[in-house]
Amino acid sequence: FDSRLSEKGLAACKELRVGTYKGRAAPPSVQLVLVSPLTRALQTATAVFGCGEAGQPSLVSVEALREFCGKAFQPCDSRRDPKELSADFSHAAFENVPAGPDTLLGPEVVESPESADARIRWLLSWIRARPETNIACVGHMQILTRILTEHMGPAGWDTSEYE
């Protein structure tokens, strides 16, 4: 199942947006928000960046930012069909999420590290080709850690402020 944020999680997102969450500053102004196609990430991006509101950044969902679970199937990390997601998040674009059911995770399916790395390479290439200069990425712990430590760090990017 594609888990949702709890009420406590939604409240934390709203606090983060205005800079009152645990002493953290409000998020920077961005032109585009890229987001995992998992519901909790879409909820986070929408609440933190105001996506869907007038004057706020566009929201583009990309399969490349979804969680990486290389050891065991975690049902909460399975995504829904983009058609279903579109009904809940009409302000988001889902062109970069394959149609149909989840093929990366399932009871007998666990994604390989090579597959995750291919997703990451696609993502970084896609971002480099974008015209925007300020892009936020909303994803999950394992995939973001892999992006920063396995791909950006070795490429010379400063990842020292990663939280």
Automatic annotation (TrEMBL):
Source domain of life: Eukaryota
Pfam families given in the database record: His_Phos_1
One GO MF term: phosphatase activity
SUPFAM superfamilies, alphabetized: Phosphoglycerate mutase-like
Any single GO CC term annotated in Swiss-Prot or TrEMBL for this entry: cytoplasm
UniProt xrefs under InterPro entries: His_Pase_superF_clade-1 (IPR013078), His_PPase_superfam (IPR029033), PGM_Phosphatase (IPR050275)
Listed transmembrane segments: none
Name this polypeptide is given: Histidine phosphatase family protein
Species this chain originates from: Spumella elongata
Native organism taxonomy: Eukaryota, Sar, Stramenopiles, Ochrophyta, Chrysophyceae
